[in-house]
Amino acid sequence: MKNSVLSRLSLEEKVSILTGEDIWRTYGASGKLKQLFLTDGPSGLRMVDLKENKPFKATALPTCHVLANTWNEKLAYEYASVIADECIVHGGDILLGPGINIKRSPLCGRNFEYFSEDPYLTGMLGKAYVRGLQDKGVGACIKHYCANNSEYDRCYQSSEVDERTLREIYLRPFEMCLEEKPWTVMCSYNPINGIYASENRKLLHDVLRKELGFDGLIMSDWGAVHNPLLAVKATLDLCMPYHKDYKEVLIKAVQEGRLTEEEINERVVKVLELIEKSEQNSSKRKITFTDRERHVKAVETAKEGAVLLKNEGGVLPFTNRADGSGKYSKIFFYGVNIKSPVTSGGGSGRVETAFTQKPLYELISASTGIATTFAEESRWEPCWRSVYKQAYEADVSVIALGNDASIEGEGFNRCTMRLSKEQEDIILNISSHSEKTVVILYAGSAVDMSAWIDYVDAVVFAGFAGEGANEALCELLCGRANFSGKLSETFPRSLQDTFKGGKTYDGETDLYDDGIFVGYRYYDREKKDVMFPFGYGLSYSTFEYGNIRLVKNGECDYDILYDITNTSDTEGKEISQVYVKDVSSMVRRPEKELKAFSKDNILPHQTKTVQVKLDFSSFACYNVSLDRWYVENGDFEVLVGGSSRNLPLKLKLRVELPQEEQFSDG
Ligand code: GLC
Asked: How far is the CA of 221 from the centre of ligand 1 (A)?
């Protein structure tokens, strides 16, 4: 199709195809071409109704950092399917997600939209998300390519990243997602090593297209193109949104011999191929969920993604004293999030939901019969006396607070990891009047809890948990569901403990001199204590690990088996994590790296055998002298457990690959 269409297009029409017709749609060539609608966002459909010029209402799923805390690939697939469903309802052709940037600093304003500090976990969930979209005929757009790990001055500050760090940390999730053949990739705003992503031929053409084999369409982030000629030369296919100078600049370049029509044609073909792909997959575009089912998926994700960080003395779950062995007869609830939880951070990923949540106190009272009282922020001082009185008269206080879209969002970073002083004081003051205190935390990334965590009995990290937050929390807090979420990013003790500390860079360059030591890789190298480690999360169940063994299928092809026993009376899901350590190496390597994980439901007192695979990529690092992934022969250790800092199982193995097999294909 494309060649016959190409031959019928004038040069002017061709260059018009290389930029949008408006903010959201590709060029329709006066009806000659199907216009594709490109729409946000990673945690639900944020699509502008062009007639009303405001976003359609859609299902506000928990944002992707909560999805990441589920460590559940099947759920990631279903999550994306729900979004694809609503794309089909409203006519969206390409969903601008998933965002697979690595969380280098807890301060990045868009961390809530991303998955993890770890490239493997990001890649595995990103792959499932891409499949979920494209199996329903909606194109995925993996973004933002690449090294877009800060919102501070995101359009101009250059990410100065060495080759090995780029490959092992920041490009790895893209490389993994390419296995699912995403239809599109979105380049980022920022320069990488001094060249804007939209003009970076090495990254777009040499690496993404030639080396990693991407054969889809590369679009710009909205407004990320500075120089149309350099963008086309770098093989950017589609400049979004409509760029008023694109046509004139490119036609002039062709007329002056600085650009050939063949170069234009190569980019136009990519747009035509995307249109063709969308048309060829139109039969998959079937609406398969009801509004209710989409909402239930939001609740399920919030439930599986909530992380129980502290539960001293078994303060949770809430049980009714009137039921005999129950613990509580009155619960006091405080905070605006109790009635209407923050659903998302700010920016292009924010979904406008039509769903109104019931207050958490109402749901819990209905569910357990326990009496509840409630108070929220007040503008009048005397209110505090009544707040403290209510707290004092209850058996337990539940405080729901945290960040909102004004603190975490697109286009800016947080300047602190702490809650506001006012919020910290609220926790300290209410807990000092309470028998027991439970904090429900709404935020999109790590929070420094050091000022107050010792004064509360339980902490639930809900994240930005979408429209189903209160229903999910009610089931979890009342024990009708069990916690299973685990952190997909480290919660350090303080900002000063992070690699960058509080410093932001000068807006010109952001030097990635932490190198590959990002997240737990950094805290391990520095042997730093953290508030809560990567992969950490409590449950109402308790689990024991044992009996690790391996089956060697080949020199870099192992089945690792281990047993997990649920030593409690409560059924629960356990996320087991498998890390690989290169015992001695010719290059600096992290102490350990996540290379496999499994989430398994285990009945009370049941023992389950878990089996995961380790392959070449589990042992390899990127060797910049060879420009290849490379496995150094020698001793390795496989470490298994329930968090990156709790790995009770270890086995040793030696890799002895023949030399020609030590390298990835060039
Ligand atoms: C924004 C974001 C990108 C989004 C696009 C369209 O600036 O960086 O993630 O998909 O523009 O809204």
From this structure: 6
Burial bucket for residue 193 (CB in 10 Å: 0-12, 13-18, 19+): middle
Provide φ and ψ at 4, rounded to 5°.
-65, -40
Instruction: For residue 99, report the distance from its CA to the centre of ligand 1, in Å.
Output: 10
- Between CA 486 and CA 70 the distance in angstroms is 7
Residue 151: CB within 6 Å of ligand 1? no
What is the mean pLDDT of the segment spanning 613-618? 98
Pocket test for ligand 1, best of 101, 222, 225, 351 (most atoms within 8 A of CB): 222
- The pLDDT tens digits for 588-601 are 999 999 999 999 99
Per-residue model confidence as pLDDT tens digits over 482-533: 999 999 999 999 999 999 887 766 778 999 999 999 999 999 999 999 999 9
**Which pLDDT score is estimated for 1?**
59
Tell me whether residue 40 is one of the annotated catalytic residues: no
Pairing of strands 191-192, 195-196: antiparallel
Spatial contact of 570 and 540, defined as CB atoms under 8 Å apart: yes
What are residue 40's DSSP bridge partners? 46
According to DSSP, the residues that pair with 328 across neighbouring strands are 320
Q: Which residues contact 377 (CB under 8 A, 6 or more apart)?
A: 335, 336
Give residue 45 CA to ligand 1 midpoint distance, Å.
Answer: 13
Is the confidence at residue 285, as pLDDT, over 60?
yes
CA distances to 121, 203, 418, 593 from 550, rounded to whole Å, are 22, 39, 44, 18
Which pLDDT belongs to residue 666?
A: 56
Residue 538 CA to residue 442 CA, distance in Å, equals 18
Element (H, E) at 619: helix 616-619
Mutate to test the pocket of ligand 1, among 23, 37, 40, 142 (most ligand atoms within 8 A of CB): 40
Q: Supply the pTM of this predicted model.
A: 0.98
The number of beta carbons lying within 10 Å of the beta carbon of residue 340 is: 16
Give residue 46's pLDDT: 97
221 Cβ below 6 A of ligand 1: yes
In this model, does residue 382 exceed pLDDT 60? no
| Mean pLDDT of all residues in 54-67 | 97
Q: What is the rounded CA–CA span in Å between residue 416 and residue 402? A: 13
The DSSP element (H or E) to which 246 belongs, if any, is helix 246-255
What single-letter amino acid sits at 486?
K
C-beta separation of 96 from 238 below 8 A: no
Residue 611: is it exposed, middle or buried by C-beta count within 10 angstroms (0-12/13-18/19+)?
exposed
Q: pLDDT tens across 457-485, in order?
A: 999 999 999 999 999 999 999 999 999 99
Active-site residue among 221, 395, 514, 524?
A: 221
Cα angle 546, 615, 610; round to 5 = 25
Ligand 1 centroid distance, CA of 224 (Å): 10
**pLDDT reported for residue 276:** 97
String of DSSP letters for 320-367: BGGGSS--BSEEEEESHHHHS-----BSTT-------PPPHHHHHHHH
Please report the pLDDT score of residue 68 as a whole number: 99
What does the block give as tokens for 365? 């009272």
Ligand 1 atom with least separation from CA of 154: 8
Mean pLDDT for the chain overall? 96
